[in-house]
Amino acid sequence: MSITNIIQSKDVYNIIRKALEIMDVRIMRHGEVTAYFLYKMLQTDGIYSEQELADYTMIGMMHDIGMIKTGYSKRIVDRETKGVWAHSVYGYLFFRYLSPIGDKAEIVLYHHLPFRLHGMIKSQYMKIAEYLTLADKMDMYLCTDGDGLNRNYFSQNAGVEFSAKAVESFNKAQAKYNIMEKLNDGSYKDEMGALLANAHFTEKYKKGFLEMLIYTIDFRSQQTVMHTLATTAFALELGRILRVSTKELQLLYYGALLHDIGKIAIPVEILEAPRRLTDDEMQVMKAHVSASEKILRGIIDDEVLEVAVRHHEKLDGSGYHRGLKGEELTQLQRIVAVADILSALYGKRSYKDSFEPEKIKSILIKDAEAGKICPRIVAVAVGNFDTIIRNYEKQRNNTLGIYETILTQYDKIYEQFKIYEQ
Question: Distance (Å, rounded) from C-alpha 122 to C-alpha 371?
Fold first, then answer.
């Protein structure tokens, strides 16, 4: 396994797909089908490069990512017709500030705007937004068996609710590629996989989409918004000081970045509980590790997987979720376990402020002496504490700035669009 192939292009798509499936299988399927419709419509036009098709397919898959922040209705018809601007605006902001294709974020912002209002908007991506609008609504129509709409709904509303060009493109795609048949027999998934496998995403592109997903999950709770960033930064600092190889640093990066991806399955009221969790709540919280494993297993390399899902294991076997012991835990897994604890101690929580440096060091040393975490790695963390924290703070301030920008801009943009709420 080469350094650049630790995470492959198709892996990024599949990780996003599985994470959304854990959140709600209907949201995952809606994103997947919408992305497929969009992809085939654009492919029918015949003017887009493979990279552009991959970009727009990723947007289609994640066009409702704002629901991670806003929550969602159990009924798809409600999700797609009521209160749509909250998730559209958050989705736009997540793409704009967190993704590697932020210049295309407006596609997400406008995907619920009726075509009759498009004359008010100036954007180089309005055609793609028009196609996404139709693809999105087409899947909703299929999922609800029309929900009272007649079968000519789309053609009758061409030029009003939908772009006539988009309706025409969809019909051409159906005639040329039999997209509805491929949807019914499941073969559309193979086409999606082939497109993403051949895309050859750069390392920056792959990291950008995974960071977007993970930070979006963290953004559900202000109390945990910095946790993954801190854990990843601390793990990499410890790895450099311990002189691990370049490949091992990549394993550390991806393992730490993905270690809490399963928190997408944990209710916000538990993530933001203004006190220490009850025993029952703690059991729910602990389930994030097995959820992470469910998302990642079979997609990413086993080395990355085990770094990610063993961060709560203890050397004495008292950890979770497998109760492993010291000899079963590698150096990289031990590093992320220490980095995770350091992040929790240094960060604020709903029930505590950040601990003072000396208290953090004391707790780490105590856990090491009790046989819970690796004494060697703790010694490195304590001995280089100021440098580790200083380097992290540079990243922290930038990410907090993005977080505040997203919250501020959300209020301003939502105010402009809420008049279109149905």
Answer: 61
The DSSP H or E segment spanning 231 is helix 227-241
**82, 73 contact by CB (below 8 A):** yes
How many whole angstroms separate alpha carbon 221 and alpha carbon 272?
6
How far apart are the C-alpha atoms of 232 and 229, rounded to whole Å? 5
**Which string of DSSP letters, residue by residue, matches 58-76?**
HHHHTTTTTHHHH---SSH
Q: What is the pTM of this model?
A: 0.89
Cβ neighbours for 248, distance < 8 A, ≥ 6 positions apart = 239, 332
Output 327 or 417, whichever has higher pLDDT.
327
Q: 404: buried, middle or exposed (CB in 10 Å: 19+, 13-18, 0-12)?
A: exposed
9: nearest Cα among 135, 227, 217, 198:
198
pLDDT tens-place string over residues 50-95: 999 999 999 999 999 999 888 765 555 455 555 689 999 999 999 9
Bridge partners of 379, per DSSP, are none
